[in-house]
Each structure stands twice: as C-alpha cells, then as structure tokens.
Amino acid sequence: MVQTINRHRFVIDGKGITTLVGLYGCPLQCKYCINRDVLSSGRFRELTPEKLAQTLMIDFCYFIATGGGVTFGGGESLLYAEAIREIKAFFPPAVCINVETSLNVPTEVLESVVDCLDSLIIDVKSMNPEIYRRYTGISPEKTYQNLKWLCEHKLQSKCRIRIPIIPEFTTEQEVQQTREGIEAMGFEDIDVFQYKVFG
Ligand code: SF4
What we know:
Elements: E1 2-10, E2 17-23, H1 36-41, H2 49-56, H3 60-66, E3 69-73, H4 81-88, E4 96-101, H5 107-113, E5 119-123, H6 129-136, H7 141-152, E6 159-165, H8 172-184, E7 190-194
Helix pairs in contact: 2-4, 4-5
Bound molecules: iron/sulfur cluster.
C-alpha cells in the first residue's frame, strides 16, 4: 500500500539518485510522528509489486548513472518485506534497493528480506528501553533483537544507524550512551540528528 512516491532525491536516503516509496502502516506510535495523519487517514494506493516496479522504472537511467535506486520508507517498510523482495526481482542488481526501518518487526521478517537489500537505514530511537517505550508506546525488544541479529551475521556495513535527539525525551548524555552502545555492536555509519517538532 503506497502513500507517496518521491522521485529524484539525491543522497538523502541512499546512494546516488533515489526514489522514496512511502508505505502505509507502522507498529509504533511515536510522539512526534510527522506521518501520523497520513497513517491514520488511510490515504494510499494499492499496487501490485509488478505495477509498482513498472512505475519506478521510469527513473531507471538515473539509478544506473548515479549508483542509486529505490528506498522504501513509511510507516514501516518491513511490513512489506515480501513485496520488496518481489520488486527487487524486476530490477538488475546495479539498482540499489534500500529500506528505512525502525526494525521493530519479527526477526523472521528481517531474515526473509535482508539478502536482497543494499542498505538499511535504521532509526533506533533510543537504546534506553524506558525512553523507547515512553516515546513509541511499544517495547523495543524486537528492535534490539534485530540489531543483535545483524551483528551476529556481520551485516553492520549494510546499515546506517540514525539516532534522534528527541525533545523532552532524550538528553545529550542519553544520546551519547545510545551511540556508544551502537558503536560497541560494530556499527560504524551513525547519524545523530535533531527531531524537528511541529505544532
Ligand atoms: S516509526 Fe516513523 S512512521 Fe512510525 S510512528 Fe514513528 S515516526 Fe511515525
């Protein structure tokens, strides 16, 4: 279920020129979610993997020329792991397939799709379980378990870890602790960024 398709993005969500496909639905309820209205209103288009791949193919030359590709975001992109795997099959290997994810999905889901992904952009929120729970409304257990799984399978180099500074939820010290925890797991591509709160 596709909410949005944003074309011609440059090095924002993956290498080269990318198309960002926003998918509907998310298990989290982040306090400052900028997508919540869209997620709750159910404004989306249902497309088969084949039809979506055909739609995305319009930028094939850009992808090939820049080493870019398609990034699935959301919502939670991994709710559509099976469809992402099917879409990957429509593109040659040179077209990158990336996901933006909170990783808060069962490990079997991650396992089912990780080999066809070129990169995972993971918003971990916080490695402090209490802060995570307070901010998202759910347990971080699956996210932490999946980070561990990625380490055990030596897949850290496929991952960019995003750590938000969340107003009223995280302090500088807690963000630093999250960063150190992530570094200790062997992840090297780490992006600490400030959440912007609107309204
Ligand atoms: S993970 Fe993203 S889409 Fe889901 S509730 Fe949080 S901010 Fe919104």
